[in-house]
């Protein structure tokens, strides 16, 4: 395992040089704080196997603690197997073998090399870090969302008959929410009954269940290139082969899609039609039609992830064609959720598909998590059914429009190429002109988290593009950093 | 697929003969009610492909509706593809081909034949049906649980800073809950740090994540025989081979375990040490030690599912040895949760394991559901940390003791063999002397859901045993049924 780590070509940003946040008032001793901090860095791969630790003196001076404290911390880390002491040379991060080595057969970890960078970025997204330090984040700042909406709904639910919350609930999901989703989809001209809908723990579980149901190890799954990178790890873990279809501003590269479909005979093509991540572009009607024709010809299923649905102002305002609208859930499986616009923590997503497939997927869901909690589903139901959601989404879009315009202007001013300027959505897929892996590494050293382009592509090749979140671009220091770097 | 259904050897109970619950006051027309009811039965495999429907006249008379109503309902079902009309012979349940047939390659469904019965029982458990009609249920009646505990905790959470609920939360789970679990495990003499704990969507997701991490298709997983049957479908879906280890009153059949381990070289052995499902027996200290020795010798991991932990009065009162207590999470992965004692709907379970494995499993969790919702985890944290949980569990145990004693006496009186009389827990693994598949089928016709023994065994062979829930034995009609059947 450690070997696969070593052989990685892409270097994840390191935070080795930043000072520790040590507190003399904390409940835990300074020694313990240092031990934990170093352990975390090693576990997060920020300190690599074999790398040399700062000397005891360096560490002590840099962090303003006594050398005795550092000696004790290093000693404990040696005892715990995190570090090793090499006579006359100092302390090194140790190659830690898993506790139960024999069970980690090499083929069980085939999927790890591409995963580890993805995991690095995902872990960083979950790190408690101010939003203006994360231009690469895929989420809106919490200040943009509405905590009171959630709190009020929770309070209302706590006043209902609580015995409803004691059982497992419906394996397909809370029925009133599915009825509400039926109405939501009807507005997108997708006709469904509640029986065709299965709720999930976010779109992530939806993708996992669908991929597990329709693929066997060795099968091919097409994804957009670029796209949401968590899928690479998720699908690779199932033993599927992930192949990227170049995504142009108006949808997939159709010639390439037809060519690759003929060669690889994919089982699934997972795509985002409206406000594609990371480009925030939407598919044209013609491309949607052509994509469906190719899917029919080569007999694969399309999984349409519409998580950014409500960041789009609607097809009356801007063109937006969903494949599910054309196909009516015959060959298209439609996924949606509320993590981006309402709250990620509710973990409410859903699948809409044929009646038959919905039954199979509900069974799959039972085998993996039994049911999903109704609490989050009741919260979403309440906010949707009482009309709050629509108003909230309107406000979000207005705010996003202002931030997007400002960000584009600023990016252009500092010399970046905004050739794909999206009229909606939260992302800009900017071309910096520099290798964004290196840029991200430098940014990390300054305390910022960027999302380098390489991560979004299944082949993970270095890229000059990166994804920028228009709602997380308020820190002047970050702008200064970008300006300096890109004018060198 | 339909072929595999036809070739099944075990006949799931049918409800064909029971009258429909039709309402003239309902919002939906009688025709629609009939259509839906028949659709559900077909989907639930209660009406089998190829079976003949009652004639229009029979159906109308039996349900007290006009023949026109039935004609219209049958016609709609024909149009929807659920039924077919055979000239001069009547209506038949149609063989429904999946919408997307080509993608359902036969090997993708290898796991289905055993699954379908399990799914049948699981689906029935989720059916809204009074608890006294479900002696086979694995849950406590909602009246036994404490809805106010949940409601109060939810209310308190809604008053906290709601912005905490907008982000994804910690991929390992809500930290204060993990700290609380550290204390809980310390009482069982299992030493862990919060970093060694990963929360999950119930024990079900914990099992799924662990199995996915440690096995490849073709690998062998040992389970207790009998055991919680959902695992058969879950593991088979991963392509694992599930083999049962005979479970005796004091733990696994050690000779058999050693023998089978040498032959099959399993990757995992999933077992319940304390209050095993369905026998409610606990493992002896000697058996626990022997099991661990065999695990070491043949180098497999033990997954210890301790979901019934708090139904046990504690090792000071009755012997109870956990393998994790002996092994200290070296070779044992410990699973727990609160679905049985607090609320299934919260979907809060957890994994405790080595620091290294916890990191890997947290990554796996990210790939399948990103995070778990913090709401349920905050609810459990509150109830645990404020001391309510302990008192609630004490009350449950007292109530269960009374119900168990009463149930055992009654079972013996009607001539059933209670050879394994557990001193704690909610199940009795009773020997009826009759094939419980047939008994369950007859009970279903009377509106009761039993849990026949065959379901709990990986080989699914007919059995004279069944699992009885002592908390769901209050219906005199059900006792009359058992008495009649078993004295014939």
From TrEMBL, chains A, B:
Keywords: DNA-binding, Pyridoxal phosphate, Transcription, Transcription regulation
The keyword DNA-binding is annotated on this UniProt entry: yes
One Pfam family matching this protein: GntR
Annotated GO MF terms: DNA binding; DNA-binding transcription factor activity; pyridoxal phosphate binding
Annotated signal peptide: none
Domain (HTH gntR-type): residue spans on this chain: 28-96
Keyword Transcription regulation: yes
UniProt-listed PANTHER family: HTH-TYPE TRANSCRIPTIONAL REGULATORY PROTEIN GABR, TRANSCRIPTIONAL REGULATORY PROTEIN
Family: In the C-terminal section; belongs to the class-I pyridoxal-phosphate-dependent aminotransferase family.
Descriptive protein name: DNA-binding transcriptional MocR family regulator
């Amino acid at each position: 395992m450690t070997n696969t780590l070593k052989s990685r070509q892409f270097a994840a940003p390191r935070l080795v040089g930043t000072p520790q946040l040590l507190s003399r008032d904390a409940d835990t001793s300074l020694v313990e704080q240092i031990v934990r901090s170093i352990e975390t860095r090693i576990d997060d791969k920020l300190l690599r196997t074999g790398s040399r630790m700062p000397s005891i003196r360096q560490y002590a001076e840099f962090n303003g603690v006594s050398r005795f404290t550092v000696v004790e911390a290093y000693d404990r880390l040696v005892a715990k197997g995190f570090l090793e002491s090499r006579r006359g040379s100092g302390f090194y991060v140790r190659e830690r073998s898993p506790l139960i080595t024999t069970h980690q057969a090499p083929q069980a970890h085939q999927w790890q090399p591409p995963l580890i960078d993805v995991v690095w970025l995902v872990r960083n997204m979950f790190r408690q870090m101010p939003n203006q330090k994360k231009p690469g984040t895929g989420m809106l700042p919490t200040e943009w969302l509405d905590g009171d909406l959630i709190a009020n709904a929770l309070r209302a639910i706590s006043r209902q008959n609580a015995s409803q919350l004691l059982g497992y609930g419906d394996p397909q999901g809370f029925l009133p929410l599915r009825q509400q989703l039926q109405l939501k989809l009807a507005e997108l001209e997708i006709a469904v009954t509640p029986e065709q809908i299965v709720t999930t723990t976010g779109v992530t579980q939806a993708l996992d269940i669908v991929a597990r149901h329709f693929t066997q190890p060795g099968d091919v799954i097409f994804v957009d290139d670029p796209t949401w990178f968590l899928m690479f790890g998720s699908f690779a873990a199932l033993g599927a082969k992930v192949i990227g279809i170049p995504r142009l501003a108006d949808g997939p590269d159709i010639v390439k899609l037809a060519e690759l479909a003929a060669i690889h005979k994919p089982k699934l093509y997972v795509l985002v039609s409206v406000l594609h991540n990371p480009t925030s572009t939407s598919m044209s009607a013609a491309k949607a039609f052509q994509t469906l024709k190719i899917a029919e010809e080569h007999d694969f299923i399309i999984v349409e992830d519409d998580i950014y649905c409500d960041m789009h102002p609607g097809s009356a305002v801007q063109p937006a064609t969903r494949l599910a609208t054309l196909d009516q859930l015959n060959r298209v499986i439609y996924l949606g959720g509320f993590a981006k616009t309402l709250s990620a923590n509710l973990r409410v997503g859903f699948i809409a598909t044929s009646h038959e497939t919905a039954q199979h997927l509900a069974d799959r869901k039972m085998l993996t998590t039994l049911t999903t909690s109704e609490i989050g589903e009741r919260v979403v139901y309440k906010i949707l059914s009482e009309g709050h959601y629509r108003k909230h989404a309107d406000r979000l879009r207005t705010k996003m429009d202002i931030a997007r315009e400002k960000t584009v202007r600023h990016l252009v001013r500092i010399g970046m190429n905004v050739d794909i300027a999206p009229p909606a959505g939260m992302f800009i897929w900017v071309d910096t002109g520099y290798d964004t892996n290196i840029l991200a590494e430098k940014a990390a050293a300054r305390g910022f988290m960027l999302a380098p382009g390489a991560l979004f592509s299944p082949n993970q090749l270095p890229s000059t593009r990166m994804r920028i979140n228009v709602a997380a671009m308020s820190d002047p220091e970050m702008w200064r950093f970008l300006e300096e770097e890109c004018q060198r």
